[in-house]
Write a structure and sequence with these properties.
Largest sheet: 5 strands, mixed
Number of helices: 11
Number of strands: 14
Shape: rod-shaped
Oligomer: single chain
Order of helices and strands: HEEEHEHEEHEHHHEHEEHEEHEEH
Strand order of the largest sheet: 9-11-12-14-13
Distance between the termini: 35 Å
CATH topology of one domain: Heat Shock Protein 90
């Protein structure tokens, strides 16, 4: 998952959670406002109904003209009166007025209410569970009670408060044993909340629509800004880092953005690449100098020994020439000495040509050569160092392979000299070659003193040596390791103290593998 998608998911989650919390709180706030409004409405209605009942009670009831829709109250002693003109008036007490007003209110859908009592005179005033529970609580001093109930038409806010006996109430209720201040019953008021729920739902839907719109708008704006200011610039930086150092790693960035964090990072990356390029060039130069210095050191060792080898036959050649000068007429002597002179001079010429080839400084150049023959030439140069050492050449490469000749010469000479120096009192040096699948394997084995286990991970480090000052530069094996890696090969070392050491050098057998490795490795670093 890329950074843009993670950012989108994170921002969307944050916005959704924020708006979800806002919607939840808003919905709760609306519900609380509706509940408070219903509560206040019920309280006001309660007081209005009590005032109406008080007015009716203070006037000893209310008389209505008897019509088809106006019936008599069977629970009153004085049901109706007749006027002189024959008009019949029906009496209404506070309870019946309350009931009829409730019926009018219910028809309008505004609310409904009724008088109820634990000891009702009219069976229609029998309390339900809510009302009975409330009136039981009124005995303990509770002055009002409310609850939210469900009905087929939606939620209903139910409110109930006690109705106290007034002086005027005793006209009808004195016979029931009530006194002024007693709780005669309760006024139960029900306020439907379906309209409020509809409004809340509508408001919530509106909030959701605006939330979705704002989420989309904010997300698009943030995505655009994030892509412009962060994602695209990081992608360009990542691509430039991938291109370095082989391809163009420059980064085109808006000038007005260079002062922010990513702009400064891009600038620092460019500076870092320039410093790395310079350091790489310096390191290449230093490594080449180190390689050449080691080659010259090895050449110096070879030259010192070979000079002695050349002086011996050269003295003999000079004696032959002197004798021939002294006896110019002795043709038999000349005939015998001239082939010896020719053979000796050619020997010296061959040795010098090998020294010149070994000392030449050149970059890796792959050519198809006989590797076994190159190894034989190297040991001809080293012949003077093998006086007390038995050399065994087990060379089994039957064809030519692509390799850098000078690099191979230096590898063989360095490893051979290292082996010879480990056998100061003589020993056996075995060099073998073979092909294993796609690799050319060269093994150099000696019977010298061996390498201590604690030094095994240091032998390829530049300038590391266990020899006395002046006997070694500490670059031989480091250069060998580097050259092998440049040609795409590997070097493995096994050693036992007192038993000897053998180097296993594996090189690519094909030209394609060798050149590919040479192009990829400019300044190799050995893994510790």
């Amino acid at each position: 998952m890329n950074l843009t998608i993670k950012f989108i998911v994170a921002i969307s989650a944050i916005i959704l959670l924020s708006y979800g919390f806002l919607l939840y709180q808003t919905s709760n706030l609306q519900n609380e406002l509706v509940m408070e409004q219903a509560r206040q409405q019920a309280r006001v209605l309660y007081k209005q109904i009590l005032l109406t009942r008080q007015w009716v009670s203070d006037h000893q009831g209310l008389f209505l003209v008897k019509t088809a829709g106006v019936s008599e109250n069977p629970y009153l002693q004085e049901v109706a009166i007749r006027a002189d003109d024959g008009t019949v008036f029906v009496k209404r007490n506070p309870a019946m007025v309350t009931r009829e007003l409730s019926e009018y209110a219910a028809k309008s859908g505004f609310c409904w209410f009724r008088i109820t009592s634990l000891n009702p005179v009219n069976p229609e005033n029998v309390p339900d569970d809510f009302e009975r529970d409330a009136m039981e609580r009124f005995k303990d001093g509770l002055f009002e009670y409310e609850a939210i109930t469900d009905s087929p038409d939606g939620r209903v806010h139910r409110y109930i408060a006690p109705v106290l006996v007034q002086e005027s109430c005793l006209t009808c209720h004195a016979e029931h044993g009530y006194a002024v201040g007693d709780i005669r019953g309760a006024l139960s008021i029900s306020v439907p909340l379906a309209w409020a729920d509809t409004v809340i739902k509508k408001n919530n839907n509106t909030i959701i629509r605006y939330s979705v719109f704002s989420i989309i708008a904010v997300s698009l704006a943030l995505i655009f800004l994030f892509n412009k200011l962060v994602a695209r610039r990081i992608d360009r930086l990542s691509q430039a880092m991938g291109n370095y150092p082989d391809q163009d790693y420059s980064i085109a960035d808006d000038k007005h953005l260079l002062d922010d964090e990513i702009g400064r990072l891009i600038t620092r990356f460019g500076d870092l690449c320039q410093r790395l390029d310079k350091a790489q060039k310096d390191l290449d130069t230093t490594m080449q100098q180190a390689f050449y210095s080691e080659k010259m050191a090895s050449l110096g060792q070879l030259t010192a020994g070979i000079a002695h080898e050349i002086n011996n036959p050269l003295g003999g050649l000079l004696n032959c020439v002197k004798t021939m000068h002294e006896e110019p007429e002795n043709l038999e002597l000349h005939k015998r000495y001239i082939p010896l002179l020719d053979k000796g001079l050619r020997r010296i010429e061959h040795i010098m040509r090998q020294l010149l080839n070994f000392g030449r400084k050149a970059p890796l150049t792959f050519s198809k050569v006989d590797i076994d023959e190159i190894i034989r030439e190297c040991f001809e140069l080293l012949e003077y160092r093998l006086k007390d050492i038995t050399l065994v050449l087990d060379l089994n490469l039957k064809e030519s392979y692509y390799i850098d000749v000078e690099a191979l010469r230096q590898i063989i000479v360095n490893t051979a000299l290292n082996a010879v120096q480990a056998m100061e009192e003589g020993g056996s040096l075995t060099v073998s070659t073979k092909r294993v699948y796609t690799r050319i394997v060269i093994i150099v084995k000696d019977t010298g003193t061996g390498i201590a286990p604690e030094l095994m991970n240091k032998i390829f480090d530049p300038f590391f040596t266990t020899k006395e000052v002046g006997e070694g530069t500490g670059l031989g094996l480091a250069v060998t390791y580097s050259l092998v890696q440049q040609m795409g090969g590997t070097v493995d070392v096994e050693s036992q103290l007192g038993k000897g050491t053998f180097f296993t050098i594996a090189l690519p057998a094909s030209q394609k593998q060798a050149k590919s490795a040479s192009e990829q490795i400019s300044v190799p670093e050995r893994e510790q």
